[in-house]
Every structure is written in C-alpha cells, then in structure tokens.
Amino acid sequence: MSSFKKFILGEKMPDKDDPKYKDRYEKEVNAGMKFAKAAKIDKIAISVQSFANAHRKLFLAIVFGVVLSCFALNLYRLARVYCSDQTPASATERQEEMMKKRHQRLDKAIKNAHCMPPVQNDNNNK
Question: Is residue 22 a contact partner of residue 16, using CB atoms and an 8 Å limit?
C-alpha cells in the first residue's frame, strides 16, 4: 500500500543540504558545470546576462516580442486548421486528386494553345 501511495503522491523533494542526497547533488552540479564549460554555454550565458543588465528594457522587449510572436503564430495556425474544411484523406487519394488537377491544367493549356493566333515571323513579312 505504501508503494501505491508513493506512486500517487510522489516522493518528498530532496533538499540539497540533506546528507542522504548531498553527494548525488554535488555530482550532478559538477557534471552540469563541466558540460556547460565544454559546450561554452557558460560564456553565452554570461554575455546574455551582461546584455540584459546593460539594456534592461531592450532585453525585455526582445524576450516578450519573441513570446508574443510565438503565441500569435500558434493562434494563426489554430485558426487555419479550424477553418479548413478538409476531410481526412489517404495519401493515395491526395495523389489521385493532384494528378486529376494536373491533367485538367494540361488539357486546358492544350485547348487554349489551339485558340491562339499563329506566330508571324518578321523575316517572312519582308
């Protein structure tokens, strides 16, 4: 019964100062710092932080601009999907529909080509 309770409620979050988890915490922190140094993420973070400190309003404008742009793009895509009245079709049905449209365009182009006036060569008129 205790394992079921642990499954539903979860374990208590370990504290970083807890001696039971202290070694594990320090290993994970060191591994993270080592990876950040190897990937040069630490230098990027320092430069971003210094830019944010120097230009607070510009940094906030950039961050909120990106967030609002993503939100607007999601709303736009949601509206497009909601308004589209396509019924689900298989890949074969879509291919057949594309082939029909291509043949219709080709037939129309051939019919229109016969209706065009003949091209006159300027050398023959002289």
Answer: yes
58-101: per-residue pLDDT in tens?
999 999 999 999 999 999 999 998 887 777 778 898 899 999 99
Q: Are 21 and 14 in contact (CB under 8 A)?
A: yes
Which two tokens mark 53? 């400190």
CB 15 within 8 A of CB 21: yes
Please provide the DSSP assignment of 35-54 as one string. Answer: HHHHTTHHHHHHHHHHHHHH
Output the pTM of the full model. Answer: 0.48
Three-state SS string across 64-100, please?
HHHHHHHHHHHHHHHHHHHHCCCCCCCHHHHHHHHHH
Q: Enter the tokens of residue 86.
A: 């396509």
Neighbours of 17 (CB within 10 A): 8
